[in-house]
Amino acid sequence: xxxxxxxxxxxxxxxxxxxxxxxxxxxxxxxxxxxxxxxxxxxxxxxxxxxxxxxxxxxxxxxxxxxxxxxxxxxxxxxxxxxxxxxxxxxxxxxxxxxxxxxxxxxxxxxxxxxxxxxxxxxxxxxxxxxxxxxxxxxxxxxxxxxxxxxxxxxxxxxxxxxxxxxxxxxxxxxxxxxxxxxxxxxxxxxxxxxxxxxxxxxxxxxxxxxxxxxxxxxxxxxxxxxxxxxxxxxxxxxxxxxxxxxxxxxxxxxxxxxxxxxxxxxxxxxxxxxxxxxxxxxxxxxxxxxxxxxxxxxxxxxxxxxxxxxxxxxxxxxxxxxxxxxxxxxxx
Length: 333
Description:
By secondary structure, this protein is an alpha+beta fold. Helix 3 runs antiparallel to helix 5 (about 175-185). It is elongated. The chain is built from 11 helices and 15 strands. It folds into 3 domains: about 5-195, no CATH class; about 195-285, no CATH class; about 285-330, no CATH class. Helices cover about 40% and strands about 30% of the residues.
């Protein structure tokens, strides 16, 4: 994970009465094994955060940050100036929405053939260590679990002009809607995507596909596992879900079947969508068998297409599968 450029700026916020102020770094940070390890840990921590996804505004006059970033990539602006401009725009956000300041770490790096820009406002936490004399001593360390402002940009996808790839993501902690919206504005985001809603739509499309194909329970479970494994892996790596790749995994014999189902049914999904870990974890199938009756359905259908009457201990299925309905009708003829 070679680091091309990195820098640390400090946004200082004191007692709440004094406005936050920026203490900019004067030069890029020197490369070191410690910085490499911090980047790896930062990426891991970031991928586990709740995020929003989107792209830069595609206007004739681009917003300040993507405009400055273009100049940096063209060699017209140095990394220190680029990140200082960004830090200046983030300082009022910290002042208005956060109780504490922190250190703004910005790193331009490569990961395989891809190139990313990652930034995060980091706080410290107090801890303990043991020195060379085997004495317990107080120590401060970065708290990567607390990351109120962070973002990650896939530079290659942005420069390639991708119309579908959600190449920019940023943190969206619970209770911080105004902060997240202000952060998106500072980044110059256009048409942000709701990862949880996009993931729910994908799972709804998958459930419809399984029902339409009238698949056996074992086959349905295998395809569900394939979807969840792939989508969860993409989420862990901070990458979007490719519907074409997913379709190939869901059905190797008909690799485009699920993809065509999504396109033909107009679910409004782009070819690549951001995954949401929480939504994926909540997706499962309820399955039960007793007295010759076998029932299985996706958990998100409970309360919608399927209702449970606790008082009478019975399930109410609002939409009977077509094949099952036809079998019942033939039996009654």
